[in-house]
Structures
1.
Amino acid sequence: MQTITLSDAAAPKPATPELGATVSALADTELAPLAVRIDRDGLYPEPFLRRLGAVGGFRPVAAADLSSQVDVIARVSEVCLSTGFLAWCQSALIWYVRNSPNAAAREAWLEPAAAARLLGGTGLSNPMKAFFGIERLRLKARRAGDGFIVDGTLPWVSNLGEGHVFGTIAECVDDGSKVFFLAECGAPGVEIKRAGPFIALEGTATYAVRFKEAPIPYRNVLADPIDGYLSRIRAGFVLLQSGMALGLIRDCIAIMREVEPALGHVNRFLEVQPDALEAECAAFAREAQALAEDPFDPSPGHWRRVIALRLAAGEATLKAAQAAMLHAGARGYLASARPQRRLREAQFVAIVTPATKQLRKMLHDLDDGPGVQRPQ
Ligand SMILES: Cc1cc2nc3c(=O)[nH]c(=O)nc-3n(C[C@H](O)[C@H](O)[C@H](O)COP(=O)(O)OP(=O)(O)OC[C@H]3O[C@@H](n4cnc5c(N)ncnc54)[C@H](O)[C@@H]3O)c2cc1C
């Protein structure tokens, strides 16, 4: 079992007290009533995302204030993980654009995405796995003027729809170099096809994306080559995911506390108790905040701590959701009940890239040198 060293930093910082309170109020009033439909009917909460953008919910990541953005994602995930994940997708998109060395790309995309007038996400699962020796890059590019032509398919990209955009990576067939670019859904050669249905996260507008001779103009090229750029964005990409874990764990603690008056006399015999989970969750939040202080820290030690936090928070999410279910008992087993939804959602935190197995491989490779690679 990998362990993380928890920092003694100060208590977690909210996304400015005003923004934090606004996001929670918005989530309670406008998102909570939709959570069951998002989960069961696959309702895509686009109006909520746009409202979140309008109240400044994506401004922190645009300003590289990742601690506050983690807090926003946590507050949304506390109510609904589908929407928390969508908030992460949007945050990752903004993170890619704000860190692009291409001024034309920043000029075209940063402000609309930060305000959530433009929605979108990230297709980095395949590249993340490719860079850690798990699979091959699925997208191929060839140079065309100051842009590229891209071919290939990505099986799952969320927060999509006509006119939405997402960041991803292709391998150049000319010289084996890699290009990081923004794809526009519905642009020539870029087709999206609904994926799923899934057991949870059904409201995440998740699509397979097929590139067929798709032209990528210069203003969509975020990095070429990608080397220095990837090391600038990687910690933020993973760190922002801790918001999903924090929010979900907090709601699992709330579930346990809600049933305490009726069931506390017997629930006290269960192994996982809310006080201990609360302490663990607070430690994760402190560590996320400490690591977010310099998301561009290039040191291997910082990167290792980011991975270790992500792994520990994912595993604690599974533990918390399982415990919430055990505390709630049969009332949590109803198809409309929160505990069973949180249990299904928790699995996603552990399997979304970087998945638990990948995080364990990454730590292994960092500590013991590159281990098993995908057979060629
Ligand atoms: C609801 C949902 C939303 C997602 N949103 C995004 C997103 O926005 N961006 C993004 O980049 N990734 C997204 N993913 C993919 C996700 O991040 C992981 O890559 C995926 O869960 C598999 O990760 P893994 O490491 O466990 O690989 P494994 O499950 O071990 O899979 C190995 C490979 O097989 C492929 N594979 C497995 N089953 C299928 C299948 N039925 N059809 C096609 N390919 C398959 C996987 O994509 C992967 O390349 C999403 C997945 C889900 C379930």
Note: The domain at 17-114 is CATH 1.10.540.10 (Butyryl-Coa Dehydrogenase, subunit A; domain 1).
2.
Amino acid sequence: MFHAGINKKAGEEFLGQADKLEEACGVFGIYGSEKDVARLTHYALYALQHRGQESAGVAVSDGQGIKVHKGRGLVADVFSDRVLTDLTGHMAIGHVQYSTMGSGLAVNSQPLVCQYLKGNLAIAHNGNLINAQELKEKLAADGSVFQSTLDVEIMVNLIARYGQGLLEEALLKAMRDIQGSYALVVMTEDKLIGVRDPYGNRPLCLGKMDNAYLLASESCALDVLGAEFIRDVAPGEIVVIDQAGLHSRRFLPSVERALCVFEFIYFARPDSNIDGINVMEARRAMGRELAKESPVKADIVLPVPDSGIAGALGYAEALNLFFDMGLMKNRYIGRTFIRPEQNERNLAVRLKLNPVTKLVVGKKVAVVDDSIVRGTTSKKIVKTLRNRGAAEVHLLITSPPVIAPCYYGIDTSERAQLIAAQKSPAEIREYIGADSLSYLSIEGLYRALQQETGFCTACLNEEYSLGIPPEEKLGKHCSEISSRQRKEAR
Ligand code: SF4
């Protein structure tokens, strides 16, 4: 499953997406507001739009039943004023989704709404189950029928199976069966539940606005609504919000936290705080650490917008170098497709990112980006800068090389397409055509985050704390890069 820029069916390049790891989803929930909860949820989804652009949905409960509206596209495409006016209630959940496996189909949009023994249920998920296949086969053998390829449908089936008592009890039992990463928001006619997996791999936070409680993948969604951030939902915690207020319990013994480190490198919005770390500050610190490890005598530091901006600021300030926005990003590309012919490919990069020639001509340029996945975009940027007269182009990456796939809900592309799984940093530099290429070391990353433990770094070092799907054999995918070559990146 690879979506970073290629629409395979059409054979066309999709300009709206970068050569990046892609976040899979964002979730939101609100309980007890006297305001228009559907509208508030859709505003929150705007704030979480960076976590998924393929589909969006909102489910609302009025205490009697659950209504849902969802569809493919951006939040602005899916919700009209009329649709929102029809979604009345006192609680809601919402979801934005990036197209992971099969989710391009309308049936795979979330929230998923269904009926079980005790009534209606709506559920939305961010993450990925590593034992999904096994569970699905077991459930299907027992007569369950599946309409989608969503992991969350497996959870719904488990909840239905255990659904004789309280919903939270059914959820607790279901959570004992599932393995992998998840941040969930679940809603019935009278309660809202938030769940974070025992490793805390996916973020989820809790907020308050007047008498209403809110749950969100990122704190920026609370900020835009003017809500107060209360705290992050703890790994392995289930929070239940109902008429009696907020209750919380741990559902599985705690394990060492493994929060996705890429939330800080690239996914999350810089104005979000996750588990006590501000994303903007973390990215800036990554730039400063990279400056300590790999100082370059450059005339100018340019970020690859937008994700390289904070790192480039940190890099430039640490070395007292001139910083400027020398690469202009076209923010209106949207769903533009280009044909695969070479002349259109060359045009594509200029359409997406165009250098300010005056800033780069004759200069030693340090270009800062957060990560390299396939390397194709970096190669194009370097070539374009040279064509515009840059004397030297040095590429600085504020993360370690991405050498392995993610099984926890992030679209990293297949190992064969990860350039750092196939080539050494020296080979990558040569492929990209830069005068130098430097990555931040994993130690530098930890220094920037001011914590050495508590993060999932599996795509950077193949330490899969949450396990891998049984159908995947790590040996089968062994990266071709030797440990000696990897050390070159440090
Ligand atoms: S493997 Fe990488 S992208 Fe996936 S959860 Fe871990 S750090 Fe995040």
Note: The chain has 18 helices and 26 strands.
